[in-house]
Amino acid sequence: MKTRIKELRARDQLNQTELAKRAKVSRQTISLIEREELVPSLIIAVRISKIFNEPIDNIFIFEEDEL
Q: Which 3 state secondary structure label does DSSP give 3?
């Protein structure tokens, strides 16, 4: 899974800590998701989607072989 979180954070001028607070997760969780070492739960993905006002599939991109 690829993620655009880092790009979207830069666009909205948010650091990992600020995004984590808004998403109600730890900064470490955001870091792991950005490094593509953790696939977020649906609840976290929805929260992040709402924060950035983007559809989930514009933030988290799955390769065809991952589906």
A: strand
Cα 8 to chain centroid distance, Å, stands at 9
Confidence check: pLDDT of 12 > 90: yes
The pTM of the full predicted model, rounded to 2 decimals, is 0.91
Strands 60-61 and 2-3: antiparallel
- Determine the Cα–Cα distance for residues 54 and 67; give it in Å rounded to an integer: 21
Question: Torsions phi, psi of 48, nearest 5?
Answer: -65, -40
SS3 at position 35: coil
Q: Which two tokens stand for residue 16?
A: 């990992």
As a whole number of angstroms, the distance between CA 65 and CA 6 comes to: 24
Nearest one of 36, 57, 37 to 45, comparing CA atoms? 57
